[in-house]
Amino acid sequence: MRLANVAGRLVSQEGADLVDVATASDGRFGPDPHSALDRWDEFTAWSFSRPAAGAMLPAPVDAGPPVPRPSQVFGIGLNYADHAGESGMALPSQPMVFPKFSSCITGPGAVALPSDTVDWEVELVVVIGRTARHVDSADAWAHVAGLTVGQDLSDRALQFAGGASSQFGLGKSLPGFGPIGPWLVTPDELTDPSNLEISCQLNGARMQHSHTKHLIFTVPALIAFLSSHLPLHPGDLIFTGTPAGVGHGRDPAVYLRPGDELVSTIEGLGSLTTRIGSAS
């Protein structure tokens, strides 16, 4: 199943068509994109009676974030060994967790640039579909609604301000700093959801490229770790980390500028286009 948020309404891909879920379900599910996540088991049961998605369509016009109002958004730092290396940091012994505040979540489109030290980080984003608390890693995928493409945009000057008391949460949560989409794809659509090709292009030049099999802490491991400390709710997001190739790790460092275009692509999930504009 592939779901999207088009002009604020939940749609599902059926064959070569996009179907409005509220209309197709005769009002059983509302138009709000979050309505399916709140009743995920019921929604997936209904979806089995619908036509299959087929080949992935291009990003829908007016696509918004497939999960517009997550209650919790978790970021995971240093979750690829090559990114830890370019950052000059040791590999973590447990997941390095920081908050991305939910007000930063947006869909494909333009993001205003608040400073001249903003960097890119393409990431696989996990969408929780069932409440998870003390979940074993062997059962973790059963709590996943789907996967989507994300960008963990980061103001590096703000992120590292204060030295030891760094501002990861703020530096990664400015308005528009959490683009996701355009599709939410259920794991059954993917040949191997634990090994997806991931890449990011800046103005047509490939800056990042890897596979999610290189995650230090896998999707099941992250769900098990997080749910051991707090409950995960339907619609919560986990930004799972980025591979090497960010601008801050280059010599000299490269940061985003107005007019730049990021295209973030993950195998089976599509491409997320983010255009960089000047701050108003």
Q: How many domains make up the 3D coordinates?
A: 2
Write the CATH homologous superfamily of the largest domain: Fumarylacetoacetase-like, C-terminal domain
**General shape:** globular
- SSE topology string: EEEHHHEEHEEEEEEEHHEEEEHEEE
What integer is the average pLDDT?
A: 95
The CATH first-level class of the largest domain comes to: Alpha Beta
For the biggest sheet, the summary is: 5 strands, antiparallel
DSSP strand (E) fraction? 25-35%
- Overall CATH architecture of the largest domain: Alpha-Beta Complex
Task: Name the descriptors.
five-stranded mixed beta sheet; 2 domains; 15% helix; 7 helices; globular; 280 residues
List the helices and strands and how they pair.
Layout: E1 2-6, E2 9-14, E3 17-20, H1 21-24, H2 35-38, H3 40-47, E4 63-64, E5 73-77, H4 81-86, E6 96-99, E7 105-106, E8 109-113, E9 118-119, E10 122-128, E11 144-151, E12 154-155, H5 156-159, H6 168-171, E13 178-179, E14 184-185, E15 197-202, E16 205-211, H7 219-229, E17 237-239, E18 261-266, E19 270-278
